[in-house]
Protein: Vacuolar iron transporter
Organism: Leersia perrieri
Amino acid sequence: MANNKQVDAENPAEVAEDLTQRGNWLRAAVLGANDGLVSTASLMLGVGAVKAEARAMVVSGFAGLLAGACSMAIGEFVSVCSQRDVELAQLERDGKLGGEEERSLPSPAQASAASAMAFSVGAAVPLLAAGFIVNYRLRIAVVVAVASVALAAFGCVGAVLGRSPAVVRSSARVLLGGWAAMAVTFGLMRLFKASGI
């Protein structure tokens, strides 16, 4: 009976730790996928504002996917290495280096791979949407529509997996941010084209 009470007493802490761990990888995954989607869709729309050819949009989007995935991987690796160094130094000061706590530290390689993968998944969405459409106006509309649906879905999934009650607000926030990025990029590139530079 005492054992059951002890397990029950530990449960809230375990649940809280589980939610914290979930929050960490969830933040990285949603951020990476969202960043891949928004930056690649915006890049493709920006190029599309100046050049109507499908090839130009697709090539720029693919280049954005590769560059962004590499950037995310390197950035996450460096960030997690720095965090790990700080935590190892603290463990050494506390005399706990080499213990169980050291094994629970985040892995830079895993974080790097996960970040690059999440970015690539997000970036692939507008690329696949626009890759097979010849008509210029339809291609632009499809990129915006598909990106919008995916942004709303990312916001919803992030809220649900994080057990947030604000699912609609989360989706709206992600969607509005994505629309702003795409609109600014397309609009400024249109001005660039109109200026004849």
